[in-house]
Structure formats: C-alpha cells, structure tokens
Amino acid sequence: MGTIGAVLGGVWPLINQLNPDASVLALSTVDFDLTPLQEGQSVTIKWRGQPVFVTYRTQKQIDEAKAVNLADLRDPQTDADRTKPGHEQYLIQIGICTHLGCIPHGPGEGEFDGWFCPCHGSQYDSAGRIRKGPAPRNLVIPPYRFTGDKAITIG
Amino acid sequence: MAEHQGSHTQPVGAGKWWDDRLPIARGVKQLILDYPTPKNLNYWWTFGSILGAMLIVQIATGLALSMHYVPNAGLAFDSVEMIRRDVNGGRLVQAVHSVGASMFFLALYIHLARGMYYGSFKAPREALWLLGCTIFVLAIGTAFFGYVLPWGQMSYWAATVITNIFAAIPVVGEPIMEWLRGGFAVDNPTLNRFFSFHYLLPFVIGGIVVLHIWALHVPGNNNPTGVEVRSSRDTISFSPYYLAKDLFAVVVFLIPVAWLAFFAPDILGHADNFIPADPLVTPPEIVPEWYFLPFYAILRAIDFPIWFIDSKLLGVIIFGASIVVLFFLPWLDRSRTRSGRYRPLFRVFFWIFVVDFLMLMYLGSRLPEGIYVTLAKLGVLYYFVYFLIILPLLSRYETPRPLPASISESVLPPARS
At what angle do helices B188-217 and B173-181 cross, to 10 degrees? Predict the structure, then answer.
C-alpha cells in the first residue's frame, strides 16, 4: 500500500500540471458594463477564453420565449429560469453549441428567432433553449450577478 | 531458421573484433536479411515496408520542421508560413510532411485491409495484429496533434470539437476536458502540450514497430494462401528478393507523394486552415482530413438517444467502438481458413465492407442532411454488423474451398504423371 501511495504521489503532480494553471484561473471573472448596449443588440465578450453572448432582447423576443409550452422543449426551462428577476431583457449565455462546441449565429437567426449553429444545424430560441437539431441541451448560462442596474460580473 | 545460420560467413579483422563484442551485423543478417519469407507474397504485402519508409520520412521531415516551428498560440501560424516562405527548402519539407501524413494513412488502410482479407490476424499472429492496431491508434493521435499545430481555423476547431468529445462523459466529462485543454477553452497551453505529444508519439510508434516486426518474425509471414510454411521449399530469403521488391514498391509509392508535395501540397487540406485560429468564429463547416472522414461520419450519424444515453454520448461511444472493435477481430473471425481467397461468402461481405468504408468516407465530407443522414446510419449499421454478426456467423456456417497442400503447390502446377 505504501508503494502504491508513493507511486501515486509521484505521478499526481505530472497529471495535475496539465490542469488549467494560475494565469488561466486568474481570468475567471469578468466585469461588463451594459450601459452602451441598446435594445435588440447583442455583443460577444470573452470569459475564460470562451465567447459569452450578452443580448438585450426586444419585447417581442421575450414574449415569444414566454409563450412556449414547456412540454415542447427537449431541455425544459422557463424564460425566468434563464434570466435574473427584474433584468429579464438581458440574456447572458455561453456562446458555445452544446453539441460539439461550435459558435452559433444570432440572435434573430433560425426558425425560432434565436441562434442557429452552422456546424450541424442546431437551433435555439430567443431564450437560448434548444429546439431543433442534434444538440442535447440549452445554451449554458454562466454564473453571473448584477453589481448595479446596468453592470454585471461574470464568474 | 536454424538452417539459415550456416549462410553467414565468419568475419575477419575489424569485423570479427566487433562481432565478438557487439554482433549487430550478424544479428541483422540472421534476423532480417536471411529471414525466410513465403515465396508467394503479392504486392499487397509491400505496404509494411512502405509504412516503415514513410515513418522514417515523417520523423526526418518533422525533426527539420521542429527546428523552425514555434509552439505558441501567438506565433505558431506565422512560424508555419515562415517555414513555407523563408526557410531554405522549407516549402518542400513542410509539404512532404503534411502530404506524407495523408499517404501514411493510405498505406495504413491498405495494410489493415490486407490483414483483414488474408486473415493475417489469426492464430498464431494475434499479438502481431494487436500491436498493429495499437500503432493505428497512436497514428490517429499523432496525426490529430500534428493537424492542430499550424493553428489555423481548422486546427483550432478540430482541437475544440475533439476535446469536446470527452465532455460527453457523464459527471467527470467537463473536468477531463479542462484537464486535456489546460484551460476552459483551447488556447496556448493546449497547443504546447499537443506539440509535445506530437513530438513524442512517433518515437513510441517506432518502438512498437520494433515489437510488431518481432511479433512478425516469431510465427513468420502469413501469405496469400493462408497455408503455413511447410518446408524450406516454400520460402526464399528476405534479402535480396523481398528487399528489392519492397524497395521498388517504396519508390513507386513515393511517386504520388512527390507529385503532391511538388505540385499540389495543399490539395488534400482545407482552405480555412489558412485563416489564423479565431476562438470567437467557427468556420461554416468543420471537416477533418480525408483519412478521418469515415470515423467522423460514424460520430455524426448517431443523432438519436438510446435509453438513458443521450445522442452526444452515444455518438462518442459508437465512434470509439468502431476502432476498438478492430482489436477483437482475431476472436470475431474464427474461421479456420485464413485467406479470403478460399472463402467465397466472406469475400462478398469483405468487399461490401470496403465499399461501406469508402461510402462513410464520402458521407463524412458532406453536410449531414437529407439522404446523407440515412445513408450514414446504414453505413454505421453495416460496419458493426460485419464485425459483430457476419464474421462470427461465417466462421461457423461457411464452407471454404479446399486449400492447397502447400505454398509451393499453389504457385507451381502439379507435376503430371
């Protein structure tokens, strides 16, 4: 047992060195000011090296997302589950298709007024929920909080 | 082999001095040059030597490239362009290396298919087959790591999609993916480690090739009849006969390699890889190099869940199984007749399998829509039915044609009395 422990203890650093290093982890939070963003606009920012879609949705897009019957969804989530209360016009999600990691086009693309992935044709609605195509899950919502009325911290 | 030892002439002088201390020349002569080889091998048997030659070409050109290439996300793309434009003869070295990888896989697939058709994996050559499959898997890894190094758009998104495959594993998938990438997305740490592995793996392959040849020389070569060597009349020595033949085959094989490297070095690649990697833009379609297309088609064909396994994980499982199944071939095809030449039904299914593989290769290059999706599913179905159902059933129920009594009898007409 001691020998096994010694071997594992010796091997672990060699395995662990492959994990994300301190400089990568140091970029784990990003602050973003929502003030310049106008209704209907969407920007892509980088968080942990990954694209994050920050979208100021139109009232039409919000209404469309709320009108959906949850039973029709592959990965059922309400629109409220995917936004913060009082800030439902802002949709913040990781811009990576849950199928194989491509970056979807949008918003306002595809059959559901949301995002469309060019790689294998997955379609997301105006709340970023998967509606059609091979992707198994909705676009991922990163951990974030509002630090002011128009300011967020992601991570 | 004992009867061949006598052909070695006793060295004198400096040769004897070395022979008494490190008998390497004697070893080469006895184990390689005098190696008794079945006298009826056809040209499909030359691909082993061709692969050996191509491995040497890849290592030599790769060594040269590594002296100019910079494995840094900010510099990698430019350093490859610099190799192609500024480095003396760099255009040719880079072209031979990238074309050589493609041609290596062409030879590898032919070599594998020859083994499958002539039953070269059957007892007592299972270890030889398993080592060969291991080389295949390592070659896939090496080619993938190498493809990422130019750090163009296709490189970057290939790395993203392939590391994403591991995220399909339940619970531990995400941490494993981040561990592989060394970050939350593919970035500089990923490129650095991929370069390290791309440098290491060819030497691991080289080591396993030595074991592969060792495992070949213990039972000796299979041959087109699948009948074991019965006497020294069935064999000729490797040198000069097969040495000359294999060298000839290597030269012929190098003609298309040279043509591609000289005149169309990028024809097998993808134009998008001349756009530097951009983590925020996915190319309109992601397609691997031609030699991975069949497996890419298998990965994509699975767009439905089974039971509690979602479509993504199932695709990954089937994709992995399509390669792992090769390792089990000696225990799936148990027909006592080795060679497909004497198995009338097996031949039909084997050639359908070859067509199926080529069809999957074509489908992997198409967008997954309409009839292509259905064809890909049928292709995957036949791929597994061939290995898991057809081969075991044929082993039991097929009536093979009578075998020749010996290799000599199969190539020489019987003496008329």
Answer: 90
